[in-house]
Model the fold of this input.
Amino acid sequence: MTLAQDSGSVTTKSQKIRITIEIIHFEPTLKTVSNEAPFDPARIRQDFPILQTEVRGKPLTYLDSGATAQKPAAVIEALDRYYRCENANIHRGLYHLSERATEAYEATRGKVADFLGAGDVDEIVFVRGATEGINLVAHGFIEAVLKPGDEILISHMEHHANIVPWQIAAAKTGAELKVIPVTDSGELDLARFEAMLSEKTKLLSIVHVSNTLGTINPVRSMIKQAQALGVPVLLDGCQSAPHMPVNLAELGCDFFVFSGHKLFGPTGIGVLWGKREWLERFPPYQSGGDMIEQVDFAGTTYKPIPSKFEAGTPHIAGVIGLSAAIDYVNALDRVGALAHEAQLLEAAVEVLAGVDGLRVIGTAADKAAMLSFVIEGIHPHDIGTFLDADGVAVRAGHHCTQPLLKRFGLAATARASFSFYNNLEDVDRFANAVHKLQRFFG
Done:
């Protein structure tokens, strides 16, 4: 089965899943992005050194960008240059290297604010990843907001990182955790969401794009409904920020988190954006060097935001690598990249439609380029192991969404997640490996 020669659009015949590729269906969260150079998948692939490698004697077919994205050469070179030529601690030294490192670190804060459409650079907090960002907000709500009888609203499709911190917050404060149901197609039950919102709701914390189902949630309308009742909203943008332009001014949420490694940057770095009034209300999340104004045994005063939340020596190289990643993404034709990802997903659905016993988990009308599936009689771990023998890297497991998979009666799925650096040859290899798997297991 070959798709690689077909550079045009692919029409899905399968009724198992509907895919919407019109950009407008990603809601008005998109900023218009114009680039002179049209999107060119063949050229883009050359920017990612790891895609030129082989696995077990086969060309690498990397379909796990939902877990972590590969890194363009520009990011790798930025990290190398920093450690070779500019390595020093920030905010502390009065010498050339420290000044250069500090300048690069703080310049990235402004670059992230522009990338997200945030107007105030002081609202950008560097954290280890989205997980730490959510925990920081949860700590703030524990200390400054929640009390017995309050309610925290999340959804059934949340990543564990957007469940467990709120369970802990509820247990510590006497608040109650409420969960928005998910339909059989993998969409949020919006009628139930509306019914669950009330004056008791103190926070809505919701994923923008599901890391397991690929569902793109109607977050703009949900945010408007929540904030009409004065309910602040945290948006998990781990799967949205790398693939679709995000404009926080248009979205209207109160908090937004994403991880750098999913945005083609280094691991161990992420961003929390929060409205100034909230960040100033929260107490420090951690304490130590560089977040203080004055320390005395009689008491300590803290720096203003964002420094208040960045204790100790940060991941300076990670921030510099994130800066290079944002530069890389900003140079792309993002609308063209998004359309290319939609084509890859549609092609994958088409070729898998003929696999007996295969069931797609998550058939929402608006989907990102992510495909979770199970095959009757074959454990997802066996699927992942078998495909690896052909150099095809997919995720197999619960994807840190155990409650969601339990809702579908599953313990695990296999998941192929695409990015703009994939091509139709990758879909070919993926499909051929799955068909070989089916023949092997009979």
Notes: The chain has two domains: 23-71+333-441, 75-329.
